[in-house]
Design brief:
With about 350 residues, the protein is α/β, with parallel strands linked by helices. It has eleven helices and 16 strands. The longest helix is centred in the middle third of the chain and has 18 residues.
Amino acid sequence: MPMSNPPFVLVLAGGSGERFWPLSRRARPKQLLKLLSARTLLEETLDRLEGFIPPERILILTNQDQEAAVRETIQWLPPENIVAEPAKRDTAAAIALAVGWVARRDPSATMLVLPADHVIRDTAAFQRDLAAAAAAAEETGALVTIGIKPTWACPGYGYIEMGEAVSEGVYNVRRFREKPAPELALVFFDSGNYRWNAGMFAWSLPAVLRELSAQLPALADFVAQVRSAPDFTAILNETFPHLPKISIDYAIMENAARVIMLEAGFDWDDVGSWIAVAGYLSKDEHDNAANCPLTTLDARENIVFSDRPGNIALLGVSDLIVVQTADATLICHRHEAERIKQLTGKVAAELQ
């Protein structure tokens, strides 16, 4: 059900396109890939907002390398609602830009912040939780984050330490914890008192501006400039590249006057690697996962992904990641998946 006065939504759609090389590139990062269906992750993100947030209240923030591809992919959104950052300044500057953009339209509005590249299948539960987060932000004046109940002791995510319950499924936040060492991740998981930080937020504009003014005045000044500037594009190009480069967690969330967490009732996966993608692909009796026709002999636990027609054959190999595109092929051990980012810096510039 659409809300009577829906919030504005910022969809963060930047990224460097390294983890999923060679399918991903600088101009085509993860959110612009069709990893799990015939639609890109960005399209699936926006599909989840259908009937809940009207298009004119959705802002997609990307970067100049990816702007053309985003516009080509999302042609139904008002053109002015897709904005390219002129420089990479991390999430605090990106969110300040969006706060200014929303403030030009409604300075008392409520705002949601969503990543563009996560997998969530339960759209109804997702919309219910977003509505609840927005309502909590309006009613309490707090900054609201959405926490994901861990399914394992993942060292690759940030964590939220929960405080006392505010209401059913809503908790005060004791503190944010950075990506832990594996041993500490296990402590977090076993305690039951931590949730994964999914990078989803809700707040009223007055609340987030109060925190920006207190903690990072340069960003609050930028919001004021964006809100009142006669030429939005000019102030963006002139000022944005000089803003502090800092994440929103460090900039305001960790020291905000009050942060509350709503525990997600929806499924969630950030699909951060080829190993994660394998969980959604068809598997044979030897746990070879593939999105294409596969012939194997004495091959086990391999991951194969191709955007080309044709069969891929594996003989006598195990634990490989094989990714085939028109101009590049990756073959690596699955335990080296985290180092694909390092590899991309060594390939020819036109392949990055």
